[in-house]
Amino acid sequence: MKWPGSGIQAAIITWGILTGAVVVSFSVSRQRRRLGVCVLMMLGLYLVIGGHGAVNLVYASRTFFGTYRVIDDPKHPSFTLFHGTTIHGRQDIGSDEPLTYYHRGSPIAQVFAARMSTVRSVGAVGLGTGTLAAYAKPGQLWTFYEIDPEVERIARDRRYFTHLDTCGTRCRVVIGDARLSLQQRTDMHDIIVLDAFSSDSIPIHLLTREAVELYLTRLNPDGVLAIHISNNHLDLRPVVAGMMRDLRLAGRVQFQETTDLDSGKFGSQWTLLARSEAALGVLASDEQWKPLRPSAERTWTDDFSNVWSVLRWR
Q1: How far is residue 256 from each of residues 28, 103, 112, 265, measured CA to CA in Å?
Q2: Which residues contact 136 (CB under 8 A, 6 or more apart)?
Q3: Rg of the chain over all Cα atoms, to the nearest angstrom
């Protein structure tokens, strides 16, 4: 999901339009004076339609994996982490409530509510701001697998986000490529959450048949694999359904479209995979979770993937 705040959205769209206009003006104009007048006019237009302090940039950094920005929105006192234009977490100031895709009424919250009494170990691929740590209970051990150490550094900065700090020793972070980390470690989990596919460029190697086979080796017999497939450009449901068919798993999907931007609660799309219907527990009969229906599309493997086949054409 991209820039859901109305003030943020207006500012970004405005700046995008104006930047494009500057580039076009520069490319077609041979007179510096005329170009200067165009730039001044566009800056004035920005001040009129979108330049009145929509958000505050409080932190920015860049790594091999992209740019990160922490935004303070005075209209809704909170901090939001962006990776490029994709939201990686939001936390209201002075509150430990999980927000964005993980709010208390979200599909992943339903998974935790249905299984928390029997869960001892949770693995989460993708850290963000550590929002999922808000669901950690005493006696449980949560392991976050995160490829970029900068993400962990931001998530542990108490000036902005406190979920990891509040979780304490119940939550640990393993830095490195999640697939390699899971392969090298022997940790067994009751729930594995895959949350690495909401950005513009997805790590395909985490969503192949071989990758899912690896996850199953790190999942207890009655465990559940929850895959967050919210994406602006790709419909990943057929990809997950193909894994379910090929590996003879039980599967469910839920599309939650309701979004409350002011409260920071976003709609999201999740799929569940388990070794059997019984392993899904009460979620197997929950009407909010619909059966996954495989298509005729070829399953993604380490040797084959087809992003074109899952593009959202609109």
Answers
A1: 46, 12, 16, 11
A2: 122, 142, 167, 170, 171
A3: 21
> Domains of the chain by range and CATH?
6-49 (no CATH), 97-310 (3.40.50.150)
Residue 151: is its pLDDT beyond 80?
yes
Q: Which of 16-31 are b and which e, b meaning 16 or more Cβ less than 10 Å from the residue's Cβ?
A: eebeeeeeebeeeeee
pLDDT in tens, 165-220: 999 999 999 999 999 999 999 999 999 999 999 887 899 999 999 999 999 999 99
Three-class secondary structure of residue 130 per DSSP: coil
Of 130, 112, 115, 102, the residue nearest 256 (C-alpha)? 102
Amino acid in position 192: I
Full 3-state SS string of 218-285: CEEEEEEEEEECCCCCECCHHHHHHHHHHHCCEEEEEEECCCECCCCECCEEEEEEECCHHHHHHHHH
First to last CA, the chain: 16
The set of residues, in sequence order, having a beta carbon less than 8 Å from that of 27 and lying 6+ positions away, is none
Selection from 158, 136, 130, 140 nearest residue 59 by Cα: 158
- Split at pLDDT 50, 70, 90, the class of 51 is very low
Question: Structure tokens of 273?
Answer: 């995979």
The pair of structure tokens assigned to 172 is 């640990």
Give the pTM: 0.83
Q: How many CB atoms lie within 10 A of CB 276?
A: 12
Helix (H) or strand (E) holding 136: none
Q: Do residues 124 and 132 touch, judged by C-beta distance below 8 A?
A: yes
